[in-house]
Every structure is written in C-alpha cells, then in structure tokens.
Amino acid sequence: MSSHPSQKTALITGVNGQDGSYLAELLLEKGYHVVGTVRRASTFNRWRLDPIYRNLEDRHGKMDLVYADLNDASSLMHALRQAMPDEIYNIGAQSHVGISFETPEYTAESDALGVLRLLEAMRALGLDKTARFYQASTSELYGNAKEVPQNEQTPFHPRSPYAVAKLYAYWIVRNYRDAYGIYGVNGILFNHESPRRGENFVTKKITRSLARIKLGKLDTLRLGNLDAKRDWGYAKEYVEAMWQMLQQPTPDDYVIATGETHTVREFVEEACRCLDIPLAWHGTGADEHGVDTRTGKTVIALDPRYLRPTEVDVLQGDITKAQAQLGWKPRVTFHELVRLMVDYDLKHVEQETPVFIDG
Ligand code: NAP
Ligand code: GDD
User: Fold this and answer.
1) Mean pLDDT, the chain cut into blocks of 10 residues (359 residues total)
2) Rounded to the nearest whole angstrom, what is the distance from the C-alpha of residue 134 to the centroid of ligand 1?
3) Can you tell me whether residue 273 is helix, strand or coil?
C-alpha cells in the first residue's frame, strides 16, 4: 500500500458511513491517498462508496479499503501499519443514540475504548509523533444542556450510553494531547444530514417515508418525540471543517453547527411542503397525528417504541470560534437541506423494493 512521496495519506475509520464517504471524496479531490476501514457484513452495504469508485479515475488521489474494527485492537494496528498515515480521521462509531440504550456495552467498546485502542496503536507505531488525529465528537455531549446555544465552554451532561461513551472519547483525546503531545482534535459536530444519511435517523426516516407515502408505497410514518429540537446542517460541508481542523498550527477543539434549531415537527412540515402534501395536526399527547387534508388519511402517527428513556430536548450550536479560527461557516439552509433530501428520496423510492426500517 504505497503512495507517492509527496502524497499525503489519510486513514478514515467508518469510511462506509455518511461522513466517511463525503470525507473520502473531499480528500481524494485534494490528492490524498485514502485508506478506509470497513467491516464485513452478511449483505453488501457499500452503496455510499459506489459514486466514489465510479469517479475514481477523475480524481487526483487513490483509495484502498482495509478490514478493521474499533473493537479489535490488532486489526487497528494492522490498518495503521499498512497505511502509516499523515492524518487519521476516527469517524467510525455505533452512531445511533436510541440503539445505544439497547446495546450499551457494544457502544462503549466501539465509541469509547475504540478511540483508546487507536491512540495506543498510534503510540506503538510512533505515529503519535508524526500523524494528526481527528475524533468525531458530538453535540450529544451537551445532553441536558445548561445553556442555549452551546459552545466549546458549555458544560457536558450526556443523556445516553452513546453520549457517555463519546464523553470518554473526548477526554481521552484531550488527555493524550496533554500527556504525550499528540496532535489530536475533537470536532464537536451538531447533527448533520444528507441524502446519504442512515435510514433510521429521524431526518432520513421522514424524507424517505414521506416520499414513499407520496408515491403510494407506504400509508403512515411512525415517529417518537416531535418536540425535540436539533441544529441540522449539511454533512458535505461538515467534513470540510474536519479537514480544516487538522490543518491548524496547533490542535484544538471546535463546535461545528448552523446556529439554527428546529423541532422534529418542523422538519416533518417542511418535508411535506416540499412534497406538496397538505398536512394538518390533530389530537394531543400520544394521540396526536398528522392528516393529509387532501386525502383525509393519517400520514403521521406517534409510536412509543421510538421514545428514548432519556431525551436531549434542545441542541443549538454557537460557531463563533470555528468561524474566527477556521473561517468555516454553513452555506446550505434548513429549507435547502430538506429539499435536497426529499428530491433524492423521491427519485430513489421509485426504483426501490420494499424495506423494513426500525429505529
Ligand atoms: P454512520 O453513517 O452511522 O457511519 C458510522 C460508520 O462507522 C459506518 O461506516 C460503520 O460501519 C462504522 N462502524 C460502526 N461500528 C464500527 C466499529 N465497531 N468499528 C469500525 N467501524 C464501525 O455515522 P455518521 O453520521 O457518518 O457519523 C460519523 C461519526 O460522527 C460517528 O462517530 C458519529 O458518532 C459522529 N457524529 C455524527 C453526527 C451526525 O449528525 N451525523 C454528529 C456528531 C457526531 P458499517 O457501515 O459497516 O456499519
Ligand atoms: N431516530 C429517530 N427515529 N429519532 C426520532 C424519531 C424516530 O422515529 N422520532 C423522533 N425522533 C427524535 C429523537 O428522539 C431525537 O430527539 C431526534 O429525533 C433526532 O434523532 P436522530 O435523528 O436519531 O439523531 P440524534 O440527535 O439522536 O443523534 C444524531 O446526532 C448526534 C449529534 O447531536 C446522531 O447522528 C449521533 O451520532 C450524533 O452524535
């Protein structure tokens, strides 16, 4: 696995996910040799990497995939030894907050100890002196936030096994920075979405399901808490901030967000507007539901299965620091984000075979 002497090499864990695939594209455009870690699955699930491989010859960089798992220290060691990267982006994680309540131990292994394993592998290979490390930290750290909006100084109060695991990861990166001088940064990213978002995150679940309803392939979309507020941005822009963080003269931690917050309910309403589904809310509490006033059919219903034992009520980021030091700011608006997800899903739902989505 060799690269040209002047070519930078980046190792991306979780390259097969939403952010990993956009980051790989960005780094390939910049001429990097990208080494992405993937996991074996019983069904082939590389659809996000398809566009990258299709256009690989048009890009400057090159890409290799290696099998590695954050729960398997020897596989991480092999991957790092093969790549000997200049930059390491730890994007891989069990990233679903709701599911972390059902798999808390697995989530802690991959999202907390997985980070320790990577940092220790860096030390063992001498990469602590030469490579830069990006950790995918999260606005979930704020949890039951003490203030709105949240910035790099806002105290953390995690509210899920996922967030508690990510809290360990955040602090172990800071500790290795202080203790061993590792160039390690935490990107505290608020929710970011795209057509490549996994289908059991709420935005994609909404746009995909409403597209199915519009085309007569589904009757009702079932959701949990409609009142949660999130700061939703466009994933393709957020990976630019990841790269920028690793180009700074000294390592630091940054909040990346849009600064705007919207409820899940508002996201549903915006998606319905994009699809020309006239929506009216009826009922209260657990009986609340959304009706298509043109057909009289219930298109949105509540389902307690999607409520979490502890919820994060409101996330809204303050990007003053990232704007000043990285020159990063979001470009795609909330309306444009919903529109581009809806347009993608409408096109793809037409060709799909029925699938079962839970989460
Ligand atoms: P995603 O689409 O769920 O992708 C996660 C990736 O991690 C997938 O490729 C997955 O592999 C891989 N992965 C899962 N468990 C692993 C393990 N044990 N070892 C190695 N790889 C593993 O998530 P995303 O939205 O791109 O998020 C990327 C990162 O940012 C995650 O760490 C997430 O926690 C964090 N984050 C996300 C957001 C957001 O709003 N998207 C915000 C803040 C932070 P498979 O493809 O094989 O499943
Ligand atoms: N997934 C899901 N499914 N969420 C629902 C549903 C549903 O049917 N109904 C309501 N929600 C609410 C959740 O309770 C939550 O308040 C909100 O919608 C957003 O849920 P998700 O889209 O699952 O994302 P998240 O905010 O919990 O976590 C995402 O963002 C974090 C950054 O703040 C993930 O990408 C995490 O990995 C990331 O760290």
Assistant:
1) 80 98 96 97 92 75 94 98 98 98 98 99 98 99 96 98 99 98 98 98 98 97 98 98 98 98 98 98 97 98 98 98 98 98 95 64
2) 14
3) helix
